[in-house]
Amino acid sequence: MTDIIHLLPDAVANQIAAGEVVQRPASAVKELLENSIDAGADRIQLVIKDAGKALIQIIDNGCGMSVTDARMCFERHATSKVKKAEDLFAIRTMGFRGEAMASIAAISQVEMKTRRHEDEIGTCISIEGAQVTNQEPVATSPGTQISIKNLFFNTPARRNFLKSNPVEMRHILDEFQRVALAHPAVFFSLHHDGTEIFNLPKGNLKQRIVHLFGNNYNERLVPVEEETTIINLKGYIGKPAFAKKTRGEQFFFVNNRFIKDPYLNHAVSSAFEDLLPDDSYPLYVLFIEIDPSKIDVNVHPTKTEIKYLDEKSIYAIMKSAVKRSIGRYNISPTLDFDQETGFSNMITHKAVEDIVPPSINFNPDFNPFASDSSSTSGYASSPRNYDAKPSAKNWGSLYDITEQPVVEQTSIYADETVLETKQKQYMQLHNRYIVSQIKSGLMVIDQQMAHERILYERFLVHLDDRKGASQQSLFPQTITLNANDFELAKSLLDDIKSLGFDVREFGKNTLVVEGVPVDLGSSNINETQLFEQLIEGFKNSQQELKLSKRDSLARSLAKNSAIKAGTSLGQEEMNTLIDELFACKTPNFSVSGKPIIQTITLAELDKKFEK
Predict the structure, then answer these.
(1) Domain total in the chain
(2) Exposed/middle/buried for 581, CB within 10 Å: 0-12, 13-18, 19+?
(3) Alpha carbon distance 117, 64 (integer Å)
(4) Are residues 508 and 561 in the same domain?
């Protein structure tokens, strides 16, 4: 029998490795950006075309490479960052495995121009499918320029699995933001299809957060700083009032490396306990500095998971530091036992003779049991004189309600969800529920969930027929979104217009809302807040429930524009709401699948009264 085990060709091995290292264009962007950081660049430009499928170009002013290094960097396991096994436990660089460039070159067409600062001429190398097609000297600026064209050109199956351009671009933006946040002292720029998305000047961390997410984040940030023998912690958290319904603005960095850690995320969330509802997530950008020998970053191919030597201590430090920052900046009440100022305002500097003692005035003829026309005499002569009789005036009005006409109920369907009456009369309970008498007892309807169901089915129809009517605003509102949300909004623009929004692009990361759906009524509407909630709700529906784009949009707008609990409704408004609810295809259940209608039978009421 012949031998069957053999070594894989380098081209095949590189393609297999590329499946783990380069999963989508954003993976290549991450590797290239981190290489530029490791090269000491303080100016990095990223150019994207067709969401990275056609072109990914990185231009930096780092240290550059010699002719030999330029050729060697495309070999498997070729790296300048690790020389022996012990170096794995003292890693300060972003990359160290030596797999990224070889993997990228195996599945794309790569052109690299590089020159060291001390050299007069650089090197240009062209590679296609792991094969070097050209190498020659070239005049180029100091640093490195890498162009990746036609990613996955020789692996069509992987290319077919890529998502739409807006989705892939949002992944690229995520990776770009993470690297830019970790290095605020480095200039970054990002261009997509000829449009500048980001231009981030050098600055501090707070300035970088504001440049990335928008000027309105300046007032949302609370600093966090803690130094211990185990870790040094610094960064910013967001105020609870600006927490969002979706994740996406939570960033942990360990030695400037972005990581995902549910355990540490729980530490931050527990610090916000009782300040946020369960389904809200605060903003945080936190940096942990720790001895590299106490962590292991060689755990996952994407290097976003880390093992810690003392995980519980880090959890406790993280939680207490965030909690202290929350209290220090008056987000939650605190007690300072070192400085009690409760009596400071009561100290007076007046002379003793100038202080007037307080006096008490009272009416000695006051009688609480006297009627309006009766005298108040007799009570002052004796505190125990209760001879005066209480007034019996208007006692009969207590029973006037029994003289109210009884609403005549005519019929109720067997399932008791559709009510037909000659004269519909509903009662609002605590401005939250609508109550009506039915043949077998009582029917209670949640007004908010009922309105959500009505709007949801109406918006679905608009998305199908593309005929949502718009009510023009007197003063159009300008909305500035962060780059990720702006890309998402652009991809949804046609569907958003179908719902009845009159919205258009207006410059960089900015939209103008000139009209809102007529279905939202004539009440005062904050277009900016409503649109932001629409985008936020859409992301939440897609992340948590994995709904289609159509359902996610309709659900988000319905939940954010429905009348809320605590809204007072008139009789006509309640009649209209109930009529429209029972005209829905699914009147019994809300958008979230919870019951809208509850019935209480006479038998259940009798049982309550022990009859």
Answers:
(1) 3
(2) buried
(3) 7
(4) yes
CA 210 to CA 325: how far, in whole Å?
20
Write out the two tokens for 253. 């960095």
What confidence tens digit (pLDDT) does each residue in 148-197 have? 999 988 888 888 888 888 889 989 999 999 999 999 999 999 999 988 99
469 and 536 inside one domain? yes
Same domain, 454 and 564: yes
pLDDT bin (cut points 50, 70, 90) of residue 385 is: very low
SS3 of 30-93: the string is HHHHHHHHHCCCCEEEEEEEHHHCCEEEEEECCCCCCHHHHHHCCCCCCCCCCCCHHHHHCCCC
Q: Which of 93-102, 179-188, 378-387, 389-398 has the lowest mean pLDDT?
A: 378-387
In the structure, how many helices (H) and strands (E) does the chain have?
15, 24
What the block records as the tokens of 437 is 């008498």
Q: Return the closest-CA partner of residue 602 out of 464, 438, 491, 383.
A: 438
SS3 content of the chain, % helix, strand, coil (to 5): 35, 25, 40
- Token readout for 584 is 């829905």
pLDDT tens per residue across span 495-520: 888 888 888 888 788 889 888 888 77
CATH number at residue 515: 3.30.1370.100
Identity of the amino acid at 479: I
> Does residue 195 lie within any of the structural domains?
yes
pLDDT band (50, 70, 90) for residue 54: very high
Max Cα-Cα span within the chain = 125
In a domain, 403, yes or no: no
Residue 308 one-letter amino acid: Y
- Cα 359 from Cα 379, distance rounded (Å): 23
Q: Looking at the structure, tell me whether residues 190 and 230 fall in a common domain.
A: no
Dihedral of CA 20/25/27/32: which sign?
Answer: positive
* C-alpha separations of 110 from 66, 127, 535 in Å: 18, 5, 37
pLDDT value of residue 595: 93
pLDDT of 412: 39
What is the pTM (predicted TM-score) of this model?
Answer: 0.71
Pairing of strands 187-192, 43-49: parallel
CB atoms within 10 A of CB 429: 12
**Beta carbons within 10 angstroms of residue 373's beta carbon:** 7
Q: Rounded to whole angstroms, what are the CA distances from 231 to 309, 317, 327?
A: 12, 8, 21
Distances (CA, A) of 325 to 278, 328, 534: 21, 5, 31
543 — pLDDT class (breaks 50, 70, 90): low
User: CB under 8 Å to 466, separation ≥6 — which residues?
Assistant: 498
Query: Does residue 232 sit in the same domain as residue 105?
Result: no
Q: What length does the chain have? A: 611
Print the domain residue range for 148.
Answer: 10-200
Residue 436 has pLDDT above 60, yes or no: yes
Residues 488 and 550 in one domain: yes
Kindly report, residue by residue over 419-430, the tens digit of the pLDDT.
444 446 788 989
User: Is 105 in contact with 14 (CB distance < 8 Å)?
Assistant: yes
Q: 122-128 and 131-138: which strand pairing?
A: antiparallel
CA atoms of 403 and 238, how far apart (whole Å): 58
At residue 73's C-alpha, the angle toward residues 69 and 79, to 5°, is 95
- Residue 385 covered by a domain: no
Per DSSP, what are the bridge partners of residue 388? none
